[in-house]
Amino acid sequence: FHNVDFRYPTRPTLRILRSFSLKCLSSGTTALVGPSGSGKSTTIALLQRFYDPLKGKVLLDGHDIKALNIQWLRSIMGLV
């Protein structure tokens, strides 16, 4: 994630993420931990392309995920 801004289409006045950046290493496991309402589920929804960011980019191995096949993208992830 690089400088991502996001608002849900159903709540356009409520900013969910602002200038959010996150880098995860491909050689390990990443855990998103935080209190309710901190953006964990939103981050995953953006990563899986249920939504696209209003600003910024979501990259996977240096490639903008907007250019990737959504079914393939979702098939390579494991979530608990």
UniProtKB/TrEMBL annotation:
Record InterPro entries: ABC_transporter-like_ATP-bd (IPR003439), P-loop_NTPase (IPR027417), Type_1_exporter (IPR039421)
Checking SUPFAM superfamilies in the record gives: P-loop containing nucleoside triphosphate hydrolases
Tell me which stretches of the chain form a coiled coil: none
Q: Where is the ABC transporter domain?
A: 18-79
Entry's Gene3D superfamilies?
Answer: P-loop containing nucleotide triphosphate hydrolases
This protein's GO cellular component annotations are: mitochondrial inner membrane
Query: A Gene Ontology biological process annotation?
Result: oligopeptide export from mitochondrion
A single MF term (Gene Ontology): ATP binding
This one is known as ABC transporter domain-containing protein
What is the organism of origin for this protein? Rotaria magnacalcarata
